[in-house]
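ARCHIVE RECORD
Type: protein–small molecule complex
Small molecule: TNX
Source of inputs: curated submission
Record status: active
Notes field left blank by submitter.
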Amino acid sequence: MSTTPSPSPTAVPAPLPAEEPDAATLARAAEQSAVTVLTAATTHRLADVVPAPQQVQPDPTGDWVLPAGAVIVVSADPAALAVAEHLAELLRPATGYPLPVTDTAAHSLPVADAAGPGPVGGIALVLDEAADLGAEGYRLDVAPDGVRLTAVTATGLFYGVQTLRQLLPAAIESPTPVTEHWALPGGTITDAPRFPYRGAMLDVARHFFAVEDVLRVIDHLARYKLNHLHLHLTDDQGWRIAVDSWPRLTTVGGATEVGGGPGGHYTKTDYARIVSYATARHITVVPEIDLPGHTNAALVAYPELAPDKIAPPPYTGTEVGFSYVDPADERTYDFIADVLGEVAALTPGPWLHIGGDEAFKVTGEVYTGFVERVQRIVADLGKTVVGWHQLAPAAHLDGRVLQWWGTTGTDPTTAEAVRQGARLILSPGNHAYLDMKYAPDTPIGHDWAGLIDVRKAYDWDPGTHVAGVPPEAVLGVEAPLWTESVTSLADIEFLLLPRLPAIAELGWSTRATHDWADFRDRLAGQGPRWATAGITFHHAPDIPWATTATIPTQRDTPQTDIPQTDTAAH
Ligand code: TNX
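STRUCTURE (tokenized, with ligand):
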């Protein structure tokens, strides 16, 4: 099962001069070695991108090679400049090239000429309000004399950068300089997403994960053009976000997790770091405070919220549905207003997720009455309410969004809520739940919604999945990762990859491109990239993983970063 790459005849570390070489020396050394290496112009096709682009027009005469002296020229706009810097930061480690970024105000060439013939032959990032590309779309033109990315917004440019990155050889993922022929296949890609909401969820409540781990998950989302990170911040086993007006939520409620570990929580500064890292990657953070159930940790901290006003024991098991805040006590609504108010203040994005799932002990009118009050609290904060589809029977509130996690594709109550105006995020448990096992022998994860191999994750259509829900009512897709059995970053990556790109493709790519055999082959090309970057992934047997000759084999990174086998991941 191991797909450890075979030794590469072409990609070896560039010889580095002794003693602290400067960027220019590094660049010269890398380029000199590159020109002595005989490789095909490109190792892959213009269409080898995940998620599949809308339109691909290859030009076999148009291949381009990144020169060591390339300059990245960008429209004079702060957000676009940040995207250009991001591109440079992605390309500098492996190439060793300096790749200076300059905006058109500072550059003597007008943007129209920046990608044209000339000594630079670089990359131009062009904001063009008149381009017919939509708010998130981009066009990538690759020609022998330069590369040009065009978009209406910096977000579109950011997605174009992710495509460009995937079109370079896999060695571009190396954290240290390698010798490679940095060629891009020629032609034009025109691309835009199918759905506006493309997300993943990380449960940081069952097990707590450090800020650094969350940032790395954000990196994985960004690669595949996902634009929402939903953080499940509270549950029976732990409360993970600081709330100044109710401090024991974290000091007491945050000190536990599944299995009895120490837990943890994010200070407001920690959380702001996550949000700003995500924002810089054009990702919106969606905080979830799960109510009225999944609240044992809050009740341990503040027994006054419990129906019997008695503190329950801390909970470190994995059962669900036993806890709830007292829906009959006004103090509960003060608590919720305080918590959601503080969370809203940390949230630049429009969404606040209020959970609503598995509140088995709050039923009927008591449940709907509770949800209706909480929905109004969210609206009064100027945010849009999101909740699991159990919210459906509560009265409609303008803009509200339900997150579908069912496994049958049928629920008349959800269909009726949608008829009244609710929009739906699709996270069907039997296709999109990344905590489901791949196969019976998967060492971690659940199987209550079935096994989910890569094909199962890929082969469904969010536009038609739930009976009575038309495609126009579908806001998008989200892949949730619950973490009852997930204890490390390697575990997270093992369950995320390679299924996250499958869900990302359902959210991004037009249905006309949907094709399992084609997806499988494109996905296979991602393996060497993850391996090179030191990212753990499941070597799913249904994917023909490339043992490409472009993986650098000698690197400065530790052996444990070399591709993991299934068992090594856990
Ligand atoms: C159901 S799906 C849950 C979670 C569990 C998950 C495990 C949903 C809204 N609730 O509380 O962690 O199953 O797969």
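CURATOR ANNOTATION: The first strand starts at residue 55 and ends at 58.
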